[in-house]
Write a structure and sequence with these properties.
It is a single chain. The strands form 4 sheets. This protein has a 6-stranded parallel beta sheet with strand order 14-11-10-9-15-16, with helices on both faces. The chain has a 5-stranded antiparallel beta sheet with strand order 7-4-3-12-13. A 3-stranded antiparallel beta sheet has the order 6-5-8. The protein is globular. β3 and β4 (348-354) form a beta hairpin. 50% of the residues lie in helices and 13% in strands. It has 724 residues and is α/β, with parallel strands linked by helices.
Length: 724
């Protein structure tokens, strides 16, 4: 008698989604109110009625006459959104783990928004969607509205008589007022500056964003801020010169505005700004990298310039960034287990690391690598090419030799015989989207140029897992890859991982159109043979598998860190103000030194973050250590076929320049031509075609133009950005 099969337990995904919908509703209400406050900030009702009343009701001996109101109105809402975002993302992961149906839900909503997601190419902005343009226009409108309202209200009080009382001309008083208000407008952009570069953010996923895809927003905001702050500074220099008060440039009073601090902050900002323009950043990346650390004096002296109360309006974004930065620092203090490297003849290497099974990430995720042997200071981002589901114990990245750092790495690993038996490597990450929706399409067309193939390898590996292990239906895949030389075709060998992948994948419909643009035909037989070397390394016992820094429930821990660190800060600063500053100053803000007050606020803010984040890190470190010991005993990956007593193993495999056998059946090679992308895309009749591109700027713009032309409504451009 055949045993009765037990019905699968009901999914809890629906319950999770209900809770997430409620969280999102609360977030949208709070966020709308927060934006409304920025709109109302320059108006007379806010300045003359709402703000005085709020300050009166929140004044205390613990937070003074102004800080309480600022915390309540501008700081608390954003931190609440961040904490709710942690719960939202955590429940989303639980829902996907239970249902295994990621990408099948929300299809109608995605198609409804398809017209707004179509790409546009805007000079100076690059490839952007219509949603991004709409929000960009609204943000610029907010800045214009605020500046116009500030000027209208301030100019209304400026008359020849009022100017004469100050011994100035009307235009001088107006210049003073306009320059002052320009700083206010720059501060609006400043409030949002650090959100896009908070890599482990819980705010960005709420709006369907990732840090790597949001770097462009940071760039836009940075240009706006520095333009406004520079004009603000120049305006004041002209004003002081016209009223013969250039000595004001050296003013750093005991209380109030410090002009010297503002000038130092502006100078630091200008140094950063000068190296951010694309030509300089690409040609002198190291200069850009090191000068960008000037953000520390830029922010610190900005706070000294404007005072802690006004700086608290911009505090939330920077506060979340500092938490993220400290967690990254903790993660990067230890070396990770580098197991092997596949060295390709096309100046590329694939690094294979050990990871804990508790570390999960999505395709197209990114990690940052530091290899002290090459550079102790430099961190470089690379796309993860592995699938956390298909390769539960390993994580891999592909690095193409296209700069000094990457070429040095290739030289280290390709030397024969190898001069190293191990490499010290530290990482930060991985970072990436909290979810992907590739399964919603009938067809995926992935267009790559050169090393741009790496994010698509992670997608293909994930779809191999979905089709072969989960036995779920996956979209048809067409990979259109362009390479300069036939040696570069060995990049296709990396589609299959070194560990644990099926040799065949009959359920996956994969077609690869590979183009070799600088060669007219296939290489001769004697030229065709080349070697891909697999270098097996022997990690130190202290090297740890890559693990989530805050464990599997990392977003819940992050929410606890955000809330507890701010509470610790409020506790310490409240006690300090009540029992030390208040007896001296009596809430007048005219006796106790503003600089000392600011230093104490920054100190206790850092102490709060240090206590909360370090405690969470140490609690999870003990758990990760147990998993590490178990994993090391199990000896990750297959045993290399060489002497187990050797320090490292060099296994030379002769491979043809064409892909390995299991992949070669899917490959169609083209020599001496470039792909006709219009033909590939316009001829597809599927109802939903996901189009992804990663490669040179010209290629990305060509694909974006095709998808935005409106000639094929079934094309859905999926923006994958790697513009760190």
């Amino acid at each position: 008698m055949e045993p009765q099969r037990r019905a699968p337990p009901p999914s809890r995904g629906g319950n999770y989604n209900t809770i997430r919908a409620l969280i999102m509703a609360v977030v949208m209400i709070v966020f709308t109110g927060y934006l409304f406050l920025w709109v109302m900030l320059p108006t007379n009702p806010y300045r003359l009625k709402w703000q005085p009343k709020l300050r009166t009701q929140t004044a205390s001996t613990y937070f003074g006459t102004t800080h309480g109101a600022t915390y309540l109105v501008f700081t608390f809402p954003v931190l609440l959104i961040a904490v709710l975002g942690c719960a939202y993302v955590h429940l989303g992961k639980k829902s996907r783990d239970d249902d295994h149906t990621e990408g099948k839900n929300g299809n109608n909503n995605n198609h409804r928004l398809a017209i707004w997601k179509r790409p546009m190419i805007i000079k100076g902005l690059g490839i952007v969607s219509r949603i991004e343009i709409a929000f960009f226009i609204m943000f610029i409108a907010l800045l214009i509205w605020s500046f116009a309202t500030y000027l209208h209200n301030s100019f209304a009080t400026i008359t020849p008589k009022s100017a004469a009382k100050k011994g100035e001309q009307v235009w001088e008083v107006k210049l003073d007022s306009a320059s002052h208000r320009l700083a206010f407008i720059g501060n609006i952009a400043f409030a949002f500056l650090f959100f896009p570069v908070t890599r482990g953010s819980s705010v960005l996923p709420l709006f369907g964003l990732t840090s790597e895809g949001s770097v462009k927003y940071h760039i836009w905001l940075g240009h706006i801020i520095m333009t406004l702050f520079t004009v603000h500074g120049i305006g004041y220099v002209v004003y002081w010169a016209s009223v013969h008060e250039l000595s004001e440039m050296l003013d750093w009073p005991k209380t109030g505005i410090s002009n010297v601090a503002g000038e130092i902050s502006l100078a630091a900002g200008l140094i950063m700004w000068a190296t951010t323009f694309p030509r300089i950043r690409r040609k002198m990346f190291e200069v850009f990298f090191y000068t960008h650390h000037m953000y520390i004096p830029f922010v610190v002296f900005f706070i000294f310039h404007v005072g802690i109360n006004y700086a608290s309006m911009m505090l939330p974004g920077f506060f979340l960034f500092v938490i993220d930065r400290y967690l990254r620092f903790l993660q990067s203090r230890s070396n990770v287990r580098l197991l092997s490297a596949r060295v390709l003849p096309c100046q590329a290497v694939e690094l294979n690391f050990s990871k804990t099974k508790g570390l999960s990430y999505t395709p197209t995720s990114t990690i940052f690598l530091n290899i002290p042997t090459i550079s102790k200071m430099q961190w470089h981002p690379f796309t993860v090419s592995s699938s956390s589901n298909l390769e539960s114990n390993n994580l891999s990245v592909i690095i193409k030799g296209e700069g000094k750092w990457s070429n040095k790495l290739h030289q280290l690993l390709s030397s024969s015989p190898s001069s190293i038996d191990r490499l010290d490597v530290s990482i930060e990450g991985p970072y990436g989207p909290t979810s992907t929706d590739f399964l919603r399409h009938e067809l995926l067309v992935m267009v790559s140029g050169g090393s741009g193939i790496t994010p698509f390898i992670s997608i293909i590996r994930e779809l191999i897992y979905t089709s072969e292990v989960l036995k779920c239906k996956t979209p048809e895949i067409i990979l259109v890859s362009s390479f300069k030389n036939s040696n570069d075709l060995t990049m296709l060998d990396l589609i299959l991982p070194l560990y644990g992948a099926p040799s065949e994948f009959p359920n996956l419909d994969l077609k690869i159109e590979a183009y070799v643009t600088r060669e007219k035909g296939a290489p001769h037989e004697e030229q065709e043979k080349t070697k891909t070397r697999t270098v097996w390394l022997k990690p130190n016992p202290s090297d740890a598998p890559i693990s989530p820094i805050l464990g599997q429930n990392n977003y819940l821990w992050l929410g606890a860190i955000i809330s507890s660190s701010f509470i610790i800060y409020l506790f310490f600063i409240g006690i300090l103000t009540r029992y030390y500053i208040f007896p001296i100053d009596r809430n007048t803000n005219k006796i106790y030194s503003s600089s000392k007050r600011i230093l104490l606020h920054m100190l206790f803010l850092c102490i709060g973050i240090f206590i909360a984040a370090t405690s969470a890190f140490l609690m999870n470190k003990s758990k990760n250590a147990k998993e590490k010991n178990i994993q090391i005993q199990n000896m990750e990956g297959p045993t290399p076929q060489a002497s187990p007593n050797s320090l490292f193993y060099n296994v030379d495999r002769e491979l043809e320049s064409l892909p390995q056998q299991s992949i070669s059946q899917s490959v169609n090679l083209h020599y001496g031509e470039r792909p006709d992308l219009k033909k590939f895309l316009f001829e597809r009749k599927e109802s939903s075609v996901g189009v992804l591109v990663c490669g040179p700027k010209k290629m990305r713009h060509e694909v974006a133009n095709i998808c935005s032309s409106g000639l094929a409504a079934n094309l859905h451009f999926e923006s994958i950005s790697f513009s760190w």
